[in-house]
Design goal:
single chain, mainly beta, 36% strand
Length: 307
Amino acid sequence: MTTHRLDPTPATTTDVFSRDTPPVLTVDPGDTVVVSALDAHGNLEPHRVPGDDRPKMFPSRRGHCLTGPIVVRGAEPGTVLAVHLKSVRPGDWGWTVAGGKDNWLTRRLGLADEPPTWLLWELDTESGTARNHLGHTVRLSPFPGVVGLPPAEPGEHSTIPPRTESGGNIDCRELVAGSTLYLPVTVPGAHLLLGDGHAAQGDGEAGGTAIECPMTVEVVLDVLPSAPVPGCHAETPAGRITFGFAEHLDDAMADALAAMVTWLQSLHGLARGAALALASAVVDLRVTQVANRTWGVHAVLPPGAVR
């Protein structure tokens, strides 16, 4: 198998999902790709002080600055792209910003009229920690926020909302190194995009951003004929994961749970009611993110929960 490398340049980055974006790399199933990406805003340099405006890959940014698209031979609608995350390495700097917007959440928190608040971070991969300019230290747990395929419909589509059928801006903190994300192929060749590095994030991404950072991700790409679960789903060190994304939290929860019940049926040969009863005993429902113009929920079946 071949190992390829993609670095972020004007020719290898985009800020929208579109099936019409020309691919920048074509690989065979089983190939490894080492993908480097800028931070979500496409900053070409780290911030010098909180909130300063740095040169960007896309001065008129429409969405996340993503690397790709990567075409995988043999990936066709009806098949599933398996993205194996072999390693995830953040850069040495990052940022977090909260507030600065008038929406229901900032109004609820009393921040609608406040300017944005920034934290700047120094990332130390040797110690596995991040330290901000106010002196706080947190543990690193890096993952790519965006791993996804374009919708099947032509035209340009925002990178901000995640999509159950094609992934994208999932922002799930469990998608660390050692995970495999399964994406139903939406367009011939798959056209995979990656980026939006997160050095650390809590479930929910409560303030709207994680520790946003440049990131290098090593992935192995495979094409599977089918999968036991509809929509995007994953196998991670934390367990098997299914996702739901919707305008309302209850719909996102129901979609994530329905997919997990289907997975339990496949794993254990159960009727649907029995699978739901078993899920009630062992499956965790977590809020993935509240930041992307849609609610995200992921259902987690921990390793060894059912024997």
